[in-house]
Amino acid sequence: MKNFQKLILIAIFTCSAVQLFAQKASWIWYPGDLDIYMSNVMQNRRTERGSFFPVFWKMDSHYVLVDFHKEFNLAQSEEVKLFVEGTYNVKIDGQAITGFPKSIQIPAGKHKLSLKVYSQAHVPAIFVQGKTVVSDDTWLATFEDKEWIDASGKTSDKSGTTFVSAGSWNLTDPTQLPSQFKLPVVAQSALKTEKVNNGAVSDFGKETFGFIKVHGLKGKGRLSIYYGESKEEALSTDKCETLDYLDIDRSQKKDSIMPLSKAFRYVNYQSEGAVSVDSVSMLYEYAPVTERGSFKSSDTELNKIYDVAKYTFHLNTREFFIDGIKRDRWVWSGDAYQSYLMNYYSFFDAPTVKRTLLAQRGKDPVTAHINTIMDYSFYWFLGIYDYYKFTGDQKFVQDIYPRMQSLMTYIDGRKNKNGLLEWMPGDWIFIDWADKLSKDGEVSFEQLLYARSLETMALCAKLANDTEGIAKYDKQAKELKNKIFELYWNEQKSALVHSRIDDKQTDNVTRYANMFGIFFDYFSPEQKLAVKKNVLLNDKIAKITTPYMRFYELEALCAMGEQPYVLKEMKNYWGGMLKLGATSFWEEYNPDKKGTEHLAMYGRPFGKSLCHAWGASPIYLLGKYYLGVQPTTPGYETYTIEPNLGGLEWMEGKVPTANGDISVFCSKKEIKVSSPTGAGKLKVKSKTKPVVKGAEVKELSKGIYEVTIEKGKDYNVKYSG
Predict the structure, then answer these.
(1) What is the pLDDT of residues 675-694, one digit of tens each?
(2) What pTM value is reported for the model?
(3) Facing residues of 226 across strands?
(4) Beta strand 199-228 with 164-165: parallel, antiparallel or unpaired?
């Protein structure tokens, strides 16, 4: 009875706390520390056939001793409740309070509240809850054990200690410790179960993710559970990628939930000895994001592609953006970069972008590339500037800028005598999964990403008020871009060659550097046309067979107005997977393969991920290049809408922003637009001058018109498509 009363009191207190303080108070910690801690927890859940499978790279940890403080000017005395994860002391104006107080009284007037927290096992964190004294990301934190701050109030003390804004995930329940953060689950049943050998195979109807629950487990012996993204995998007890074993001795029936979540569609459970099972179900685990972006058109197959892409992406949106739900479940930077872009056209979930960027970067000193992959370090830089472009969140850029500087210093220190990057011991040059793709010498693709990252550094230096950095990185970027075209552009081939070896161009031309050069806008108009003809639309150039690089190939073609071609490619490529029964999109798809060949990868019969984040790129392509919505200044303060039907009869959808969703409908005769944010420019291609009430139509050039879109207004444009 006492425990029951205690639970009620906790519930009442929690409800009251949420009502009074949830909008202001949240758990805080040293910025990036919970991100690193939780990513370590998540990434080290990976198993292969029951064996622990750790990551390939150095893992950092949280700071074990953190000082938090903030100054308050109170009109009246205030009682403040304290919730702390770790061992701690509390000081008001530098005077320590005895013991480990759960609440304190702060007198009226100006005071500085400080908490110093130690925790080796978990991230030191605090939740401060008063009427006006509350913990949030305006608090300052430091991992250095120095307490003197100069009288000017600058965020550096007399001994050089640097204070930074505290980290927060907006965890507003003081009774839920940050280390206990978990994604929610919901119970789901199998759609069909059939008896097989000494057990059964349950089909959950589509690719899914969660914890298997075994009902009515009884007896003595072993229950073996084999998971499969395909039925073939689940039935292959010696080759399936993931499994569970339960050794039991029970006289009474009992339900059991597996300790680790898994990806599957089919679950094969088999009994040994005198073990019996009534059935299995699952607890579906998911990220509680809101599906804001949408797309629908006159093409039912394309609509299906979009819906499956969104489902694929949602499955791979977890505590962080991960690569795939079956095998790795790791935070790979190349995969995550594409996820950020898809996110801006679907969930617009800014917190998960920030968490993933912080987790990837880890701590100083930098001793290797992110994920040990050269190109993945560059995607990390690009992800930060895109985050600012879509959200307008300058503070995050300022906070993470020092970590950008130290990573770029590491990269700059690995240039060769020509000022270029090439493989060095410890590096992995990935680019793509492709047969016979050379990584030798100075690869042009890496130099392009390097140049773009230096441009990103110059832009972020400006946001961080680093005058010297602006000049330094801008100079480096310009010099490297000039060098790229001087050393890699081949006039006879009208393209960038793939690499240089021994200071000479190789004959090899691949799609990678050339397609990135298009949407980076590095080529002249003449060069773009030549690259499109001689590389992107040239069947003699080795084809791309991963959705990963198809993402960029199709983006480059869309950027050049090839939406009709790209629409056919989407239907052939992603539609090809659907025709083979895919319920989520795969890590790799080669139409030339047959049957179970589609399930194999890495020399293993079921090694391929059948639910991979980079397979969901139609979300991004349809939002940016068909609905045609993209920001032109940070946070959609200004933006363009340039619909392109690409052969569709009509389409409609929403593109999310920080301030609401931009709605677009387009047919061959009519465009409807409404927006709750910024100032937009609707660009229309029309044989005659478009007609729209309440707006001026401006002719930009022959057949190209522009309509200014004001927030809060609806526009109905009649035109001749």
Answers:
(1) 999 999 999 999 999 999 99
(2) 0.93
(3) 243, 268
(4) unpaired
